[in-house]
Amino acid sequence: MSRMIFVNLPVQDLDASVDFFTKLGFTFNQQFTDENATCMVVSEQACVMLLVRPFFGSFTTKDVADASSATEVVLAVSADSREEVDTLVDQALALGGSPTKEPQDEGYMYGRSFYDLDGHAWEVMWMDAAAVQ
Fold first, then answer.
1. CA proximity to 121, closest of 38, 65, 53
2. How far is CA 72 from CA 44, 69, 87, 104, in A?
3. What is the model's pLDDT at position 13?
4. Which CATH superfamily does the domain covering 68-133 fall into?
5. How far apart, in whole angstroms, are the C-alpha atoms of residue 84 and residue 12?
6. Of 63, 91, 101, 115, which sits most exposed with the smallest number of CB within 10 A?
7. Identical fold at 1-59 and 68-133?
8. Residues contacting 64, CB < 8 A, separation 6+
9. How many CB atoms lie within 10 A of CB 10?
10. Are 24 and 95 in contact (CB under 8 A)?
11. CA–CA distances in Å: residue 14 to residues 9, 11, 125
12. What is the DSSP secondary-structure string of 80-106?
């Protein structure tokens, strides 16, 4: 059975986050969008729900992590090429994201990462599947 995944992230400013990710090329499912949340489509099987912090907090009995000072998760997305990795991360940085660490280059695998506007860590990875086999 193939399953979908919905990653839920708290955000300070929903409109700013939508603008940031739209400029990175992501789309949003308006059916699951209102003033508290939006559904960012990553693929047919993966979505990221961006939820305003108070609304996000209603889904848990624990404190909501502050991604600007602690890492709660690293979200990794694939790219079709090394160039696409660089393009996406460079664009995220130009839109107000911040750098995390130096690029990781293993020859057959290349990745870079950034923090989004709320401090969530995103990693963009390309891998030569033929080299791994």
1. 65
2. 25, 10, 25, 21
3. 97
4. 2,3-Dihydroxybiphenyl 1,2-Dioxygenase, domain 1 (3.10.180.10)
5. 28
6. 63
7. yes
8. 10, 53, 56, 57
9. 22
10. yes
11. 11, 6, 26
12. SSHHHHHHHHHHHHHTT-EE-S--EE-
- Check pLDDT > 80 for residue 133: no
Q: Which two tokens stand for residue 92?
A: 């995220």
25 phi and psi angles, rounded to 5 deg: 100, 5
- Listed range (9-23, 29-43, 118-132) with the worst mean pLDDT: 118-132
Architecture, CATH, for domain 1-59: Roll (3.10)
pLDDT at 23 (0 to 100): 98
φ/ψ of 63, rounded to 5, equals -65, 145
Is 53 within 8 Å of 101 (Cβ atoms)?
no
Is 49's pLDDT higher than 80?
yes
From residue 114, how far is each of 124, 130, 133 by CA, in Å?
A: 9, 27, 29
